[in-house]
Amino acid sequence: MTSRGVLIWRSAFFIVMESTPHPSPPGPRGGGWDGTRTRRPPSPRPLCRAVRWQRDWQRLMKMSSDPPGEGRITEDGCRQCQGGNAAGRGSPRLASVDAWSVPVAEIIAVEETDGKLGGGGAGRWQKMETPFAFTVHCVKRARHHRWKWAQVTFCCPEEQLCRLWLQTLRAMLETLTSRPKHLLVFINPIGGKRKGKRVYEQKVAPLFALASITADVIVTEHANQAKETLYEINLESYDGIVCVGGDGMFSEVLHGLVGRTQRSAGVDQDHPRAALAPSGLRIGIIPAGSTDCVCYSTVGTSDAETSALHIVVGDSLAMDVSSVHHGGTLLRYSVSLLGYGFYGDIIRDSEKKRWMGLARYDFSGIKTFLSHHCYEGTVSFLPAQHTVGSPRDGKPCRAGCSVCRQSRQQLQEEQKKALYGLDNAEEVEEWQVVCGKFLAINVTNMSCACRRSPQGLSPAAHLGDGSCDLILIRKCSRFNFLRFLLRHTNQCDQDIFNENTRAQPTEHKRAEV
User: Fold this and answer.
1) How confident is the model at residue 496 (pLDDT cuts 50, 70, 90)?
2) 349, 33 in Cβ contact below 8 A?
3) Which distant-in-sequence residues (6+ apart) come within 8 Å of 497 by Cβ?
4) Where are the alpha helices (DSSP H) in 326-372?
5) Which of 35, 100, 114, 220 is the most buried (most CB within 10 A)?
6) Which value, to the nearest 10 degrees, does the dihedral of the CA atoms of residues 414, 417, 423, 427 take?
């Protein structure tokens, strides 16, 4: 069964700062969604562009600049200050460029700053005794899916013009209703390398303060404290919940939030076929654990600053939640990996050796591999008929994924037909059964990627398509099993040695042995 959050789309407003030589050279225009910088030949003289409105939801404020080294001048007389770093220690500054494009949805904040900044400037701009300035704090996209906090400071000769820019930009930011204002933060101080509290204070809290986001912080003192707190605390004043830690901390918050939502909605969680009620709160993840699988699979990196910036701008993804039952009782919820056999044995053994730190996974992995245990049994699963893709189509899940969208639509149509008895009875629940000896049985709701396995166990698994990937690894020699494990660390296809098929997550029997 699945529970989905709210899909938030990005605003299509842009603020574009660029200079254009006259006449314009052939080729693509500079700047875009990815924040790419584009160099152009210097203009022989300042070329000014006016503020324009476009009918297709894009408001472009285009500004031109002097030749490199002389700042940027617009038709209104606004100039980019050279060396303008006004956000305090540790805040990065964008280098002087000829073109820069930033979506308004990726602007963190706009603030008035001191116009007396050091740096270059030539000509009549050096005669400006007390310029008025404002700083735009925004997202700068880096390599490997990383986001960085950057800033650009602009100077104006008139106070009225500076105020107008500030009011306009702040008014546009106020229209972005998906951004959180008040958050509940749980910090696991002993997870991973025991740096959770320091990561939050040094990398996350300054960004939240800059974006005017208030937070109530709870540093957990024992296991399941976050889950217990979410069952008891009043959540009406919060826009979201943030967990600072690893996958275990996220699991605590997930169980607390989903469990409380089902209790409030009157859903019997012990019923295997009960439809889960979606939660109105979003969960943010600040990676500070050992593997950070959930964060890496959703964001593309395990960088704390990147995750914090995604939270600040209000980015979110819908995610399927699977429930596991046994004997008419709910065992747990899962959004990443359900492992029986090899991976389950590793997790169970490594939990007994947490004193070893990150090395416990290597030790337990080698120990479990050498033991080479296999499990004999029967696996029954229900193939997913509504999904558009397949585990071998090589299409990873991305923001705005078409596979997830089309699969959800088809699943909703099938559910409506089943509700009104319009479906074909012969095509209902055609269960498939696989018998044999297995080294591992894995069910994934996502790719389960991490730093050590950039592609994950199932690279084509989708976050919100209403299905999960069932991976069966039959008994084989240690050599072949080692070849399979080594493939997780590279870009190769993961299912050369195993059966990989999609199964619907609404039935717990698919994972029974």
Assistant:
1) very low
2) no
3) 473, 476, 480, 481, 483, 484, 487
4) 342-351, 359-371
5) 100
6) 20
